[in-house]
Specification:
Order of helices and strands: HEEEEHEHEHEEHEHEHEHEHEHH
CATH class of the largest domain: Alpha Beta
Number of domains: 2
Strand order of the largest sheet: 5-1-6-13-7
Shape: globular
Helix content: 25-40%
Largest sheet: 5 strands, mixed
Radius of gyration: 21 Å
Number of helices: 11
Strand content: 15-25%
Distance between the termini: 53 Å
Number of strands: 13
CATH architecture of the largest domain: 3-Layer(aba) Sandwich
């Protein structure tokens, strides 16, 4: 009898542990970067703005949740999520197999291609020969970092930065030859600014799922499957009721969601 009671007690503890994080999610902490315009940036008064930020607030409103946005450097995004600094990440994080090993993802909430940019008149071409010996700037630990390392790592010099803005400043200062980043982030955050007026896109857009995943999704701890589903339902809802389009049109002149997922 004692053995049976002990067994049932252990089983009960196991079940309780497996369900420990299941809750109503009326309060949600969301990790954001704040250094990736037009998706996220910090205004002079210290408040956050951008596409990711507006999407986060819209999803929270749809879910009826009270949300707190927590700024976090990109390199520490996933570690901080796993350490429970926040409950979800809305920071233009691409859904990749490597990241799926550590965290769960919602379905995508946008998908835009990566592109290279060069200084106007440089004549640099995006080929192994054209990039040979050139210095390419990327944000550290991103899909763009993975792509340039795998495809051109034995040809180029890769310079990695903690933030995209740091890469832009070095490009403008003449310290690097080529930039690789999300096309929309680079267009709004660099090419369409005075700092980047001497630069231009070059080559095709890149969106191979092998490197760039399935689009940007919301990262959540694996034991919070209920939160994943709540965010998925909220994404569908704001796409259906026009809220997503209103936010989209505030920042872009086309639908950044990309092709519908099946």
């Amino acid at each position: 009898m004692r053995k049976l009671i002990a067994t049932l007690f252990v089983l009960a503890l196991a079940l309780a542990g497996g369900q420990a994080d299941a809750k109503e999610w009326k309060k949600i902490r969301i990790g954001v970067e704040g250094a990736y315009p037009p998706f996220s940036s910090i205004k002079p008064d210290g408040t956050l703005e951008g596409f990711d930020i507006d999407i986060a607030w819209a999803l929270c409103k749809q879910m009826g949740a009270e949300c707190d946005l927590v700024s976090q450097d990109w390199d520490g995004m996933i570690p901080a999520l796993l350490a429970r600094k926040y409950d979800a990440i809305i920071a233009s994080m691409s859904i990749t197999p490597e990241r799926k090993e550590k965290v769960a993802f919602t379905r995508k909430y946008y998908n835009t291609p990566a592109k290279f940019a060069r200084r106007k008149g440089s004549g640099i071409e995006i080929t192994a020969a054209g990039l040979k010996g050139k210095t390419v700037a990327v944000q550290r630990a991103t899909t763009h970092d993975n792509f340039i390392t795998a495809e051109f790592g034995d040809t180029v010099k890769i310079k990695r930065y903690a933030t995209q803005d740091e890469a832009y400043l070095d490009a403008a200062a003449g310290r690097i030859d080529v930039l690789l980043a999300d096309s929309m982030a680079m267009l709004d955050g660099f090419l369409n600014t005075d700092t980047g007026k001497d630069f231009e896109f070059v080559g095709p857009g890149y969106s191979d799922p092998k490197y760039f995943g399935e689009g940007a999704g919301i990262a959540i701890r694996k034991n919070n499957a209920d939160l994943v589903e709540q965010f998925n339902a909220a994404i569908d809802a704001i796409r259906a009721d026009g809220t997503y389009k209103k936010i989209n049109d505030k920042y872009f002149d086309f639908d950044v969601y990309g092709e519908p997922t099946s």
